[in-house]
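S., here's the first fold you wanted:
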Amino acid sequence: MDGNLTFSLETSNVPFIIDPLTGDVLVNRLIDYESMRDQKYFNLTLRIEDAGPGTLRTATMMLQVHVMDADDNDPAFVYSGCFAHNNICAWPKYTGALQLKKNDVIKVYPVPNKVNGYVSINAVDGDADIGNEIVFSIASTIPPGQESNFKVETVKSAVGKEYTANVISLVDQNLNEGFEIFLKAEEKSENKRYNIAMILFTTTAGATSAQQQQQDSSSSNSTRVEDYSSLEIALIIVVSILAAFLFSMIVGVVIFSCLRRKSSDRESFSTSM
């Protein structure tokens, strides 16, 4: 060989290119470790050409590139039936009952509820092969300022890499409809990546998806008197009375006009006679 070498990549449809002069293999697009499933490596075939005077010499070699996991994904809440994206629950949400007892672990139900029962709140590191430890805490509540009424215990699963959050009420509580807890799952790492799940407290907690749809349909098709305040009811009554009065006035004016026209017609007829 005279040193006039050219490098090329014979393997197609891979996220790599090769520098034809130096032979450096470079990544040319994003490689998502989690989407590679079981095979976490690429087999590449490299070709080397020596374009010497009068003779072209070639050689090939195999190169196996292994992909390592990186800390680039947030923790993921996991439960059956959730709205999933890339096998991770998107917009994780649970519901709970309005009445809570002191020192009891809050029972929560997944949204949508396809299991017909309460579940544990579980989360894992989004980077499966790294498996950072997960710690839960209450990020905030709506209405705000109620965080001190709750505490969260983090429990490591005996099997697998899941962590469970036990949300505990520190006092007896009768929550208002629509009260919310925002639960934070944070990985113990330099990046401190985290994810948030919502717990909505409602009278319909635990309803299955079919039951919830039926209730929503019934609610949308009926309006109850108790949905209105006293002021709204009074305004409705006043408006109804005014509308009836105006209608009566209009009818009276129309009748008066008709009678007056008839009277004028009679006078005209008498004059002509």
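And the second, which I think is the more interesting of the pair:
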Amino acid sequence: MAGTDGLTAPGSAAQAGQGGDSHQQEKSAYARFCQMLRHPSAKPLVAKAQHFVVNFDSGMSREDASDKVARFLTKAEAWMFSEAVVFAAEADEAGRSNASEGLEKFLLSRLYPKVFAVNDADQELDAKLNRHITGLAWVDLNHLGIPTVDSALLPRAIQELRSIDNYKGPGDKIVCVLNSCRVVTDILKRTYTGDSSVRPLSADDFLPLLIYMIIKANPPRLHSNAEYLAAFRHPSRLTGEDAYFVTTLCSAKEFLATAGPDAFEVPAEEYDARYAEALAAADGLVDRGHEAAAAPGGAGKERHQRKEAHAQPRPNGAARVHSPPAAGPPAPAAAE
């Protein structure tokens, strides 16, 4: 029970931003946590976690499951630091933080099959979003109102976005999100002063640039990963920078789910043609023009039925944003 179950993920998100180094540091921290779980004083903690996982109902709503997991972690952490000698000795802030991160990963890695993409609706949304983003492969920076950027930094962010689905622990996934978003921040800092015809980048370009990188990365199961992060990262740790970047990721996901011609300021006919061509290229086919009719805002009956009130705004506008979970752990509840 104290092993890593074959996971190759890191542990906490506290030191994200150093790419492979941060992943390796977190992996080492989690390995130490698992070693501490072998101490006799930690046996009741392992038993509590095992009982919680075995008896967890996978049929409850995501909101109820999130609340149940957060309550258990809050109570388990309190017991861990007060009753388990091996963890009570972790008196410094860094030690306690690593232990809390380790417990979250230990529990959620085992709960993963019961809480991640467990219903048909999530799986359908993942497949639909992945297919739609594939059709948007032609979208360039200018379609999102972004001036030319240093492309040398983009592969790193794209790689991190694609890696999110490789991990099970919320903290591990957060590391990937933070690393990719910090690349966006680095790009924004590189303003263009030599050419007066090109405007410098600003904070308003953060969301459009993240959207662009998501299109190029097309991360597997983006919908489920974003919802999982917002639901199962403990509220006491989904704060500050972590909360902002997860919120922005969810906002980018929502924008892309319905993005049509209006979002990229291109004529519907051009959008349809490029969308179909991108899908055909991905499928290895010569002609899949009929796919365009299924694209949000595409040609045909769907376009004629689209109402002006639902026109998609540009990402620099007022995109709908998910609110992150409230800061601070929920109040302890009765014993699970």
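Why I say that: Confidence is low (pLDDT under 50) at residues 1-18, 286-291, 299-314, 316-336. The CA atoms of residues 38 and 231 lie 29 Å apart.

Talk tomorrow,
H.
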